[in-house]
Amino acid sequence: WDPVADKLLICFVIVLLLFEKNLVLGVLILLVEAFFVLGAVVHTMQSANAEIKANAWGKVKMTLQCIGAGLLILSVITGFASLENLAEIIFYVSLGFAAMSLVKHGI
To answer: Which of 2, 18, 33, 40 could share a disulfide with 26, CB 3.0–4.6 Å?
Structure first.
């Protein structure tokens, strides 16, 4: 259930920080993450002994989201708008990796 925990962590950061800065991007990321969580639950229900694993695309997506979340937190703390802009770009790039992860049937 580690991949599901990662998604919940990112969702909480997005709800707390990103909605204040960019509502559209926040909604997009939340929808993608909700789809991943729902997919993991359905997959687990279909095969009780199946192990939920992330693929390489999902790992890169999660890493980018963590970096983006960290930059967003730093931007709130320091007030540097450039950090917020960089975080937004990283979040958009992570959406591309999320799409690839879905295509490759990972979480």
So the answer is: 18
**Residue 1: pLDDT above 60?**
no
pLDDT single digits (tens) 22-64: 777 777 777 777 777 777 666 666 666 656 567 888 889 888 9
Convert 33-53 into a string of H (helix), E (strand) and C (coil): HHHHHHHHHHHHHHCCCCCCC
- pLDDT tens figures, 5-22: 676 777 777 776 666 777
| Sequence-distant contacts of 92-96: CB under 8 A, at least 24 apart | 92/25, 93/64, 94/29, 94/61, 94/64, 94/65, 94/68, 95/28, 95/29, 95/32
What count of Cα atoms within 13 Å lies in the side-chain half-sphere of residue 85?
A: 3
Residues 62, 65, 71: CA angle, nearest 5 degrees: 145
For CA atoms 96, 102, 104, 107, the dihedral sign is positive
